[in-house]
Amino acid sequence: MSVDTVARRPAERLLEPVTIDRTTDAGVVLGAVTLDPNFFGVAANEPLVHQVVVAQLAARRAGTQSTRTRAEVRGGSAKPYRQKGTGGARQGSIRAPHYAGGGVALGPKPRDYSQRTPRKMIQQAYRCALSDRAHSGALRLIDRWTMEVPRTKDALAALRALECAGRVLVVIGRGDEVVERSFRNVPEIVTMPGDQVTAYDLLVADVVVYTDDSLPGEVSAAPATPPVPAKAGPAKPAARKAVAKPAAAAPVTDERGEK
Predict the structure, then answer these.
(1) Residue 169 structural domain
(2) How confident is the model over 94-133, as pLDDT tens digits?
């Protein structure tokens, strides 16, 4: 499914916008970006995703298995023995299903396992899978791959810098042969163009790595977080002013100086 063909109609947004760090392939943070809510802000619809994933897995089946019936097995056209007088059950051919080397009864035949799935269901399941990866912290965004020659050692070092572990899906652009050949020898890493990624590919991966060119939707710079003001402590009581005490009154005396 091509990312460019995904309808840009407003989807039901029940999730908060996702903000992730945009880094280099060496892990240096370039800034925070807010992902497009049309792709990364869609609530999960498990029955829809299950139906689409089952259809996608069924379409991958070759359907070339085949067995021969008794009419297709070579030989056995003659009656093995006479009809009566042997004491055994009557038989008409040694190529019957109960004979060794005989035909197979009700065996598989070539068939097409693909299921018809409406396009809008596929697109909505794709958005649900993208939103699930983004909200679970399994999404990485880099500006570009800086590898100039195919080298697995450099590719693995970049994934370690991005803190990618387990099964990793690296979404690349068309014709990006250097990156594809760098990851080709690692069985846990899958490289895939962005227009071929399905909901199953996203959900089966532990970490998904996108570049600026392969990321679906539009991104915007995350608003700067305002500084948190320091909490003011409880107000201290005002210092009490010292009040001058009145001077003691002089004792009263008479003219002779007696009290």
Answers:
(1) 17-61+117-221
(2) 999 999 999 999 999 999 999 999 999 999 999 999 999 9
Tokens (6 digits) for 32: 């925070």
Is the residue at 235 inside a domain?
Answer: no
Q: Is residue 192 part of a domain?
A: yes
Q: Give the residue carrying structure tokens 């030989």.
A: 75
Task: Check: pTM over 0.85? Answer yes or no.
Answer: no
Is 87 within the bounds of a domain?
A: no
Q: Which residue has the higher pLDDT, 28 or 3?
A: 28
- Beta strand spans in the chain (E): 19-23, 29-34, 139-142, 168-172, 189-193, 207-211, 220-221
Q: Which two tokens stand for residue 18?
A: 């996702």
Q: What's 151-186 look like in SS3? A: CHHHHHHHHHHCCCCCCEEEEECCCCHHHHHHHCCC
Per the domain annotation, does 255 fall within a domain? Answer: no
